[in-house]
Every structure is written in C-alpha cells, then in structure tokens.
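Researcher: Please predict.
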Amino acid sequence: MAKDKIVYFCKECGFESSKWMGQCPGCHAWNTFSEEKVTTSGKKNVTNRNIPKPTSLENVSATDEVRIKTDIKELDRVLGGGIVKGSLVLIGGDPGIGKSTLLLQMCKNLSEKGTKVLYISGEESPAQIKLRAERLAAFGNNMMLLCDGSMENIESNISKGHYEVIIIDSIQTMTVEDVSSSAGTVTQVREVTSRLMQLAKGLDIAVFIVGHVTKEGTVAGPRTLEHMVDSVIYFEGDANSGVRLLRGVKNRFGSTNEVGVFMMTGRGLEEVDNPSQLMLNGRPEGVSGSVVISTLEGTRPILLELQALVCETNFNMPRRTAVGVDYNRVNMLMAVLEKRAGINLAGFDAYVNIAGGMRINDPAADLGIIFAIVSGFRNRPIDDRTVIIGEVGLSGEIRGVTNVLQRVKEAAKMGFSTCIIPKSNYDKEMENLNINVIGVSMLSEALSHI
C-alpha cells in the first residue's frame, strides 16, 4: 500500500530532511526548508525483474558523439563544439536575462538547417511566443510549438514526433500527475527532470531545460538539477548593461568554464567576436588610476579596464569599495602596499572598479589593482599602451599565473606596446611578438615602472 509522509526539502540545494531545520547542512543557507508531502509505494517484487549484469570496460565500444551545430559560435563554444544528441542541458539565470531569446535564436538556425525542433512552454501562450519570435526573424516549418505543463502530454507528443531537439521553458512550470506537490517544488522538479533524462537517453534527443532563479530564492532553482544533467550553463549579465555572458560550469562532453559573450540589442542577442575591444571602448587616455589588465574566462583572454580612485578620507575610518573584484582581496593588496612598499594609505578612501560591468575572480589582476591604486594615490597616469598581469603575494613577490602566453598574444593583437608579467612566466616565444614584455619578480621592481 502507498503511504504518505512529510519530508522537508531545501529550496537551494535539494537537501532532504525528516524534520525542519533553520540552517541547511548541505549549502548552509538559512530558512530554506519547505514542507512537502511525498507518496511512497509499497515493497515491490523484484524476483522476476531483468537485472543487468556488469560489463568489462574493454568490451564497451566507444563511439564519437554526434554534434549538431547551432550556427551561434559563442553557444557552440560553451557547449564544446555543438549540441550532443542524447544530452540533457540546463540553462539557468535570472528572469529576463535572455535565456528564452537565445534558445529561440538557436531554434531558428536549427529549423533552417532541417533539424526538427519542439519548443515546449508552460508559462506563455502560442501568441506570445509568436510575437517574440517575429521580432527575431522568420522561422521554418521544422519549428514546432507546444504550450502545456503536463509531463504525460509532453511524453506522448515527443514519442510520436521524431524530434531531434527539445526545449523545456521552464522546468518550474512542468508537473507530473503522480506527484501531489505543486509545480516548482523540489519533488516535482526532480521527477520531471528524471523523466526528461529517460527520454533524452532512450530516444537519442537533445533536451534543453530552462531554470529560473529568483532573487529571493523561493523557487527550487537549477542547483537542484546540476547533478542530474549533462551540462550546466549559466546566463549572466547586469540589468543596466547590454553585455551577457554565457558561462559553462559543467560539461560531460567538453571543457568547463568556457564563456560566450553576447550583446543584447533590439534584434535579440548578437555575438561579440572581440570582447576585449568591447570592454575597452570609451577608455580615457592620460588619466591616473586607470590600467588595463588581462583576465582569462575559460580559455579566452579578455582585456579589461580597471579603475581606482584614492582620496583623503573625512571620517575616522577610511572607506574601501570594490565593484567587480573581491573586496577582501583589495584590502589585502592595500595592506601589502603599506607594509612592502611603504605607501601609507590609512588616511585615504579607496574605490576600485571594473569598467563595463564584468566581475572577475582572477588572481592575475592583483598587480593591476596595485598599479591602479598607486597611480591614483600619486596622481601619475600609467602608459595607455601597457597591460599588467601578475599575482601578488603577501611578501611582495610577483607570482606566476596560468596561460600568460595567450594573454600576451591578446594584448599584442589589440595593439598594446608593453606588457608587465611575472618573471617566472617569461617565455622566449614572447620575443617574436610585436610587444615589449617586461618580467618583474618583486613589488618594488614592478612599481619602478610607474
């Protein structure tokens, strides 16, 4: 006999508990447990069931995965070269960031190539999707539309249609009749994703799942699904900026941490082939506190403008503000400046900002932050054609970073004349580039170039 029991789930990570707790032991978030009723079936007879037997790894034949090109280079880059048949891909992001727009553009390109696509929406009517699609471009006959939230109806349509790509927009609106909880709960999301995974693997169909994340965290977001899907892609961006980043954080069929760059326009999302040029547009020349750094997003080097403003404080405790970089990292680097370089910043406010709205967590930006702060403190501009790369240790040493050659090549391609890097990263191949590479080992040696 089926029995009902009360279970508590964490909305953030999906941790399951038999009682309510204030803090989740899994993700350490507060007040995220919600009460749900779960139906458990009785003991099943497994004596007549076909039990699979283990197979030797040597006897398994490895076949190359078949990929479908989307004709969106930035999306193909993040996916690892295209869409893999039989894969389950999760695309997460804040509401209104552009997830549905990107998937509609992908569906347009696929339908024009003859790929049969089914777009399933549980939150919009066909007329609403038609109006949004007309703003992008005309769609072919291979683009099919279904507006339904019942998984039973969706499974019936998928099994009869012979589709190659399925879009689920969004996973929080889909429901399974056997589960008594409401749509968007952890139980429903898990059950729906499990059924979609069986469809993708059984019918060799690529399935894209859209997961919404609210600011309050009240809806079971994509974190619950990350361990179930093959690829996890997050769509990031500032609401006040048109730049959108497509970041891959998990990919079973390609490299992780790849990044695709888009620009949101009235015609939809447009690819950005040269992110460095976009980020450096409008950069002032001959101004103190402004430097150019090179960060690495996945395997792609991107040049960014880092700004610092240092002024005397009017309070007993100086203010420290960091936008786009780690606040604690900036405080640590200012302490290194005071101890190792003898620059007294205790009576000055410091504001550090990454122009363009991007956020970075790359230790290679340490030396650039220090150069910007010292330039703003002394009111001495740094050469506009100089790129600064390097990690700074607590002893004032300049430590090596990864993929310096790629960063230097990007700086040379953008027309910069000088690049300051850690001496341990110096490579003879850099001598063949049209750029003057300077290796430094200590902070005092690096600051002598200001």
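Model: The chain has three domains: 3-40, 64-272, 277-447.
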